[in-house]
Amino acid sequence: MANVTQNRPLSPHLQIYKLIPTMVMSIVHRITGGALYFGTLLVVWWLIAAASGQAYFDWVSWFMGTIIGRLILLGYTWALLHHMLGGFRHFMWDLGYGFEKSFSTKLAKATLAGSLVLTVIVWAIGLAIRF
């Protein structure tokens, strides 16, 4: 039997589409949503450690204070803030605003810039309080 799928056209993919900011932010919004799932497991781990006793809590706190732990927390903070701003963008669209191409592109770029700025602000405040 002959392969009948050889004559079918291929679906458009990234080789055909040009990546635009709104497309990238949509993809990143989905990725940050998945990352928040795993980040929430870190919060649960921290809460369990707090409920388990001082020694385990100290160990978890030590780990989160290492370079790797801080990078994980930094990524979680950015993912949380980026996903929140992306959610506001989607909420605005749900209300029927912001569909113009130029505005939508500016909003996508602002989502990225805003999440980075907010992450820096949150960490600056957190480090200032700590020291």
Automatic annotation (TrEMBL):
Q: Which domain of life is it from?
A: Bacteria
Q: Tell me the InterPro entries matching this sequence.
A: SQR/QFR_C/D (IPR034804), Succ_DH_cyt_bsu_CS (IPR018495), Succ_DH_cytb556 (IPR014314), SuccDH_FuR_B_TM-su (IPR000701)
Keyword Transmembrane among record annotations: yes
Give the way it sits in the membrane.
Multi-pass membrane protein
Q: Which residues cross the membrane?
A: 27-48, 60-81, 110-129
Name the PANTHER family for this protein: SUCCINATE DEHYDROGENASE CYTOCHROME B560 SUBUNIT, SUCCINATE DEHYDROGENASE CYTOCHROME B560 SUBUNIT, MITOCHONDRIAL
What is the name of this protein? Succinate dehydrogenase cytochrome b556 subunit
Q: Which gene encodes it?
A: sdhC
